[in-house]
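SUBJECT: protein chain
CONTENTS: sequence, structure tokens:
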Amino acid sequence: MKSPDELFVQSRNAMGTVFTIYLYAHDGELAGVLFESAFEEIERLEEALSNYRATSELSRINRLAARQAVTTDPEVFALLQTSVAYSQRSAGAFDVTVGPLMRTWGFFRGEGRYPTDAELRHARESVGSEKVNLDPATRTVHFAAPGVELDLGAIGKGHAVDRAVKVLREAGVKAALVDAGSSTLYAMNAPPGKSAWTVHVPRPGDRSQTVSTVALRNESLSTSGSYEKFFQLNGRRYCHVMDPRAGVPVQGVLQATLIAPDSTTTDALSNAMFVMGPEAGSKLLATVSAARGLWILGEPESQRLVQWQWQDCGGDEQTLAAKPEKGKG
């Protein structure tokens, strides 16, 4: 008689965060093989997509694409196409070229500062997905302006989660949860004897408190938050989540959480819905299959929730915390 599956958990550092995989398997030896396969896939993607690795495909594109059309591999090209498409769908609220603005505001150095008008103007000249020319016929990338750079941090981890889930599915895993820094996670099927994985969304500024509890089955959840990385200047708070259209940090939004069928979508569009806010963001979510959204607005001491198609299950079994990742956005 086959023994019942047990829950196994393993974590590893990748993509600037901690990936944790929860999976059910017959024994620890099988679980170890499964973990290795999934984490190898995540590492493969980090090697391709990291702009902190000089040897990555993304770094090669950033070095060359302002001077010439750069041929890239099918996977990276497809992810760039998806990124540009999400930028267009969100009217520029999501943008993988936002790096020059982040640098100008001091967030890459960890020391926020208010840029001069000239600095801001110069940075904005290098930002905008319309400056990234993609040619499907030749699978090439070419930047239309100097200073353009790609940073897939707001979509790459979601793509890695989706790929790891695919590896586990193909290996025959019946139930798993793949979690990238708790800011993006995917719930595959359901734990034995359960109908879904139950995930807590913490309250901004106090992770010991739960703002909502949701049931996930073959769905992804991503959260973008503003309250962990920010600076204050002249009594005003500036968060690290940038509005690429205005060139300034987003004001008045503490957290945005999105549930949708895949992690590439939730990773990117939770960022967009944070930037857009509830009114415009809900119109974006209406275009996403089976989407559910939750915004928390205001200030840390005075919070207001806005829900869109949200379903709170209030469960307390198989619980995992989903939290905004430091630096996400």
